[in-house]
Amino acid sequence: MQGPPPPTSSVAQQRFQGPPPPAMGQPQMPPGTQSLHLSHQMSPQMSPPQSPPCKHGSQQIPIQCTGQFGGHMAGPQPGMPGAFPGAPASMAGPQQKKLDLDSIPSITQIIQDDQTNQGGQVFSTNIRGQVPPLVTTDFTVQDQGNASPRFIRCTTYTLPCTADLAKQCQVPLACIIKPFASLPKNETPLYVVNHGETGPIRCNRCKAYMCPYMQFIDGGRRYQCCFCNCVNEVPVFFFQHLDHMGRRVDFYERPELSLGSYEFVATLDYCKNNKPPNPPAYIFMIDVSYSNIKSGLVRLICDELKTVLEKLPRVEGAESSAIKVGFVTYNKVLHFYNVKSALAQPQMMVVSDTAEMFVPLLDGFLVDYQESRAVIYNLLDQIPDMFADTNESETVFAPVIQAGVEAFKAAECSGKIFIFHSSLPTAEAPGKLKNRDDKKLVNTEKEKILFLPQKGVYEQLSKDCVAQGCCVDLFLFPSQYVDLATMADVPAHTGGSVYKYNNFQVQHLGDGEHFLRDLRKDVQKSIGFDAIMRVRTSTGFRATDFFGAIHMNNTTDIEMAAVDCDKALTVEFKHDDTLSEESGAFMQCALLYTTTSGQRRLRIHNMSLNCSSQLSELYKNCETDSLINFFAKSAYRAILNQPLKNVRDILVNQTAHMLACYRKNCASQSVASQLILPKTMKVFPVYINSLMKTAPLVGSTELATDDRAHQRLSVMAMGVEDTQLLLYPRLMPLHNMDLNSDALPAPVRCSEESLADSGMFLLENGHSMFLWLGQASPPDLVQSMFNLPSLAHLQEHVVRIHQIIYESILTRTSLCSTQLVVVRQRDKPEILFRQSLVEDKSMHGGSSYMDFLCYVYREIRQLLT
C-alpha cells in the first residue's frame, strides 16, 4: 500500500499542549438545543435567571449551584487530588441542596429515547453523512454503500469545510474503526471478492481500492478515483456498460460497487516473500513457579485447556481449525514439549540459557490439535504433577515472549502466544524487572514515570513480534505489584489483551469462573493475523494520528501482529485544503491480513461524510459516544508526557470551548444565566466529568499503580460501546425485573439518588459488576430471584447468583465476562460500588455532575466575555 506520508505533527499532541482558547462574543440559539438555567452564588456580577420564551423546543432548566466553589476558582486542592480546577477541597463544606436530578440532561433518558425511536429498526447505509443510532440501541444494519456503524463510527458526520472552522469549534474530527467487529446473526457476513491472479482493482495513483464512490466515465471504459481524482482505465475483464443514469449495469452484482464493506482475496504480491502464508499457531505458556503450583492455578489452566482447544477458531464451513498448537512451561528456565502424534508420551526439552533464546525442536512442537489430542491430554495431565515439588519462585518473562517469536519464525507462520503469569520477573535474564512502584511520584511532575514502560528489551521485543505477526495475550494473577506498565507493553503493541485477576484464589469459585470465561472467549474470538492497515482519504483532509493496540514504523502504515473482533483503532483527521459541500469527503480503511486458515485477504471499509461551512451542521451531526472515545484515548496518551493536572485542565478547557463556540455561533439570543448545550452533546459533560474521575487521571495514592496502568492500556484499544459503558455504567433495579419476561428493567441514573433501601441493583461497566442490596431488601425478593432463604446466605452462593445473573441478564447484552461482587448497603465493600456512581462526587477527588456543569458554565461565560 503506497501513498504520500502525512506530516508527523499530531492534533492530539497540540491539543494537549496549546494555550487556552481566545474569548468569544455574543451567542445565538437554533433548533435541537438544550439550555440550562444556572442560578449561581459563584460570581456576584451574574444576573439572576430569567425565562425568555422557548425557541425551537429548547429546554430551560434551573440548576442550583451552592457556594461551595466560592467566589474564587482555585487549582486542585492539596487535600483533594484529582479535582478539576476549583473543585471543593473536601467533602465537608456547605450541604448541597437536594438536587432535582430530572432537571439536568440524563444519559439513561437519552439512551431510552433512542431505543424507543430507532430500536428494532433497519438502518440503511445509503445516505452520505447519516448519523447512526446510538451504540446502546438495538438495531439492524443494511449495508448499502457505507460501512456499518459496527465497523466505523465518527465524532461528527459533517466535516467543517475549512481548517479555520475546525480550529474555531475545536470539535475533534476522528473516526473509530473496529475492522473485525462481530455482526449479529441477522446481518450478512462480508462478501469475499476473488479476481484471480489479477487481484483487486486499484487506482494507479493513490492505490485506493475499487469502491462504490468511483465514477465510471467514457461509456464505462474508464473511472475517476474519488480519492485523488486520477482517471484510470478499466481492465478488460472488469468492463461493463453504463445505464442511462451513468451507473454500471452490474452495480448490484458486485460487492465492491454497491457495499460499504467487503473483502478481496489477495494475490501473492500481498504475501511475504511472494509465498502464500502458513496457517497461524497458538502457543500456551504457563508459569510453573512455586506459588502457581501450590495455589492450584497450573492444574486449573491445564484442565481447562482440554476444553478450550476443542473450540479453536475455524473458517466457516471447515470441519476443524487449521491453527497449530504448542506448549511451554517456565520458571527461571523454559521447558518445550514435543507432542507429535506418533509419540506415546510427550517429551520435554529444557532451555536454560535465557539470554540466547532458541527453540530446541522444530518437528513436534507446533502440531495439529486433532491429530495429537491424546499426547496433548497426556501432557496437560502430567504438568501439575511434574512440578509438584518445585521450590523455584523466580520467573523470567521477556525470554518467554522471545521463545514464541522464535517458534513462529522457525515455522514461518504468524500466531498468538497466551502467557499465564503471576509475579514480577526478577530472575537473572533479559527483561528482568525491579519494583519501581513509588507512591511519592503521585501528583508530581514525575507521575508519568509510573505509566511508562521500562525501555530497552521490551521495546525491541514489540518490534520483533510485529515483524513476525506474533500477538501476545497476557493473563496475570498478581498478589502484589508486577510493573504492569512494562509487562503489558508488548501486548499493547501487538493487538493483544491483558487480563488481570488480583489476589486470585482457585478455591474461590467466582475467581475461577471469571478467568475461565475470559480464556474461552479469548481463544474462540474471530481474529486476523500479521495485519497492516492504511486509511486513505479524499483530497482536502488526511489521517494524522492513530490510537490503539498498534505499532507504527512510519506515519501511514498501521501494523498489528493481530486484530480481533474487540479491538478498535481511533484515527484523527486534519485539513490540508478546503473541502467541498457538494462532493463531500470519503475515506477508505484497507486492512491486509492472514485468516485463521492461512489465506491472505484484504478487508475494505468505506465511508462518505458531508461537508459544511455552517458550524451548526457540524454540531447537529456530532456523536457524543465517539467524541468521548477520542477524548479518553487522547488524554490517556497525553499522561505519558505531561502532568495529570494539565491533562485534566485541557479536558475542561476544550469542553468549555466546544460549547462556547456553539453558543456564540449557533444559538439564538438567550439570557446570560443559561447554559446552552447542542442536542447531540447535551450529556457530553457527564462523560467528560466521569473520564476525569477514572483511575489513570486521578492522582491518588490509594489507587494501585498496576490497576491504573491496566485501565489506561485497556481503554487505548476500546471501541465506542466499551468506552460508553465504562464511563457511564449501567445501573439496573433488579427488584423491578419480571422474571418471566425477556425484557430487562430500564437502567436508572448512575447516582446515589437512584438507590432505594428496599431495592436490589445490578451495576456493571464491562470490567466490574456489583449486586447492591439495600438494608431493607424484602427476603421474598431475594428468594424469588435467587432461590435463597435470606440475605445471610448470599456470600455462600455468590457463584450461583452470578450464574443466574449471567444467564438472565448478561446473555442479553454484548458484555464480556466480569466478576460479580455482592455488596450490602453500608458494608465496607460498598466503597468500590460507590466509585462507579459517576454522577456523584468521587471519594478520590472528582466532582459531582452538578458541580461540574456549574464549573463548565462559568468557563464558558469567561470565554464569551
From TrEMBL:
<dbReference type="Pfam" id="PF04811">
    <property type="entry name" value="Sec23_trunk"/>
</dbReference>
<dbReference type="Pfam" id="PF04815">
    <property type="entry name" value="Sec23_helical"/>
</dbReference>
<feature type="compositionally biased region" description="Pro residues">
    <location>
        <begin position="18"/>
        <end position="30"/>
    </location>
</feature>
<feature type="domain" description="Zinc finger Sec23/Sec24-type">
    <location>
        <begin position="200"/>
        <end position="236"/>
    </location>
</feature>
<feature type="region of interest" description="Disordered">
    <location>
        <begin position="1"/>
        <end position="59"/>
    </location>
</feature>
<dbReference type="InterPro" id="IPR006895">
    <property type="entry name" value="Znf_Sec23_Sec24"/>
</dbReference>
<feature type="domain" description="Gelsolin-like">
    <location>
        <begin position="744"/>
        <end position="795"/>
    </location>
</feature>
<dbReference type="InterPro" id="IPR036175">
    <property type="entry name" value="Sec23/24_helical_dom_sf"/>
</dbReference>
<dbReference type="Pfam" id="PF04810">
    <property type="entry name" value="zf-Sec23_Sec24"/>
</dbReference>
<dbReference type="GO" id="GO:0030127">
    <property type="term" value="C:COPII vesicle coat"/>
</dbReference>
<dbReference type="GO" id="GO:0005829">
    <property type="term" value="C:cytosol"/>
</dbReference>
<dbReference type="GO" id="GO:0090110">
    <property type="term" value="P:COPII-coated vesicle cargo loading"/>
</dbReference>
<keyword id="KW-0968">Cytoplasmic vesicle</keyword>
<protein>
    <submittedName>
        <fullName>SEC24 homolog D, COPII coat complex component</fullName>
    </submittedName>
</protein>
<dbReference type="InterPro" id="IPR006896">
    <property type="entry name" value="Sec23/24_trunk_dom"/>
</dbReference>
<dbReference type="InterPro" id="IPR036180">
    <property type="entry name" value="Gelsolin-like_dom_sf"/>
</dbReference>
<dbReference type="GO" id="GO:0008270">
    <property type="term" value="F:zinc ion binding"/>
</dbReference>
<keyword id="KW-0653">Protein transport</keyword>
<feature type="domain" description="Sec23/Sec24 beta-sandwich">
    <location>
        <begin position="528"/>
        <end position="612"/>
    </location>
</feature>
<dbReference type="Pfam" id="PF08033">
    <property type="entry name" value="Sec23_BS"/>
</dbReference>
<feature type="domain" description="Sec23/Sec24 trunk">
    <location>
        <begin position="277"/>
        <end position="523"/>
    </location>
</feature>
<dbReference type="GO" id="GO:0005789">
    <property type="term" value="C:endoplasmic reticulum membrane"/>
</dbReference>
<dbReference type="GO" id="GO:0070971">
    <property type="term" value="C:endoplasmic reticulum exit site"/>
</dbReference>
<dbReference type="GO" id="GO:0000149">
    <property type="term" value="F:SNARE binding"/>
</dbReference>
<dbReference type="InterPro" id="IPR029006">
    <property type="entry name" value="ADF-H/Gelsolin-like_dom_sf"/>
</dbReference>
<dbReference type="GO" id="GO:0006886">
    <property type="term" value="P:intracellular protein transport"/>
</dbReference>
<dbReference type="InterPro" id="IPR012990">
    <property type="entry name" value="Beta-sandwich_Sec23_24"/>
</dbReference>
<dbReference type="InterPro" id="IPR007123">
    <property type="entry name" value="Gelsolin-like_dom"/>
</dbReference>
<dbReference type="InterPro" id="IPR036465">
    <property type="entry name" value="vWFA_dom_sf"/>
</dbReference>
<dbReference type="Pfam" id="PF00626">
    <property type="entry name" value="Gelsolin"/>
</dbReference>
<dbReference type="InterPro" id="IPR006900">
    <property type="entry name" value="Sec23/24_helical_dom"/>
</dbReference>
<keyword id="KW-0813">Transport</keyword>
<dbReference type="InterPro" id="IPR041742">
    <property type="entry name" value="Sec24-like_trunk_dom"/>
</dbReference>
<feature type="domain" description="Sec23/Sec24 helical">
    <location>
        <begin position="624"/>
        <end position="723"/>
    </location>
</feature>
<comment type="similarity">
    <text>Belongs to the SEC23/SEC24 family. SEC24 subfamily.</text>
</comment>
<dbReference type="InterPro" id="IPR050550">
    <property type="entry name" value="SEC23_SEC24_subfamily"/>
</dbReference>
